[in-house]
Amino acid sequence: MGFLKRLRIRTQIMIAVTCILVIMLAIIFSLYTQTSKIVIKNNNQYSEDTIRKFKLGIAQKYDEISQIMLNLGFDPTVQKFMVQNDQSISYEMGKELDRKIISLKAGRKGFEDIVLIGTNGTRYSLNGGVGYVQQLESEIKNSNSVYVSGFEKFSYSNNLLTSMVFAQNMFSNNMNDGTDGVKIGYIAVIVNVASMYFDNDASNSQPGIGFYMIDRFGEVFPDTHSPDIARNISALSHEPNYKQQTTDYIGGIKGAIQIQNLDQIQASILSFVPEEALLEELTSVRTRSILIVILALILMALPFAMIINNILHPIQILVKFINSIKSGDIRDLKMNLRLEGNIEMTVVAEKLNGMLGEINNLTHKLVETTTDLLEAEIEKEKAATAYLRSQINPHFLYNTLESIKGVALDVEAHKIVDMTKALGKLFHYSIKGSGYVSLEQELNAVKSYVFLQLIRFEGRFDVTYDFTEESLNVPVMKMILQPIVENAIFHGLEPKETYGMLTISGTINENNTLVIKIADDGTGVEEDKLLEIQNKLYDNSASTSLDRSYYTESGSIGIINVHNRLRLAFGPAYGLKFESVLGKGTCITLSMPSAFNPPGGNQHV
Question: Which Gene3D superfamilies match (predicted)?
Answer without folding.
Answer: 6.10.340.10, Histidine kinase-like ATPase, C-terminal domain
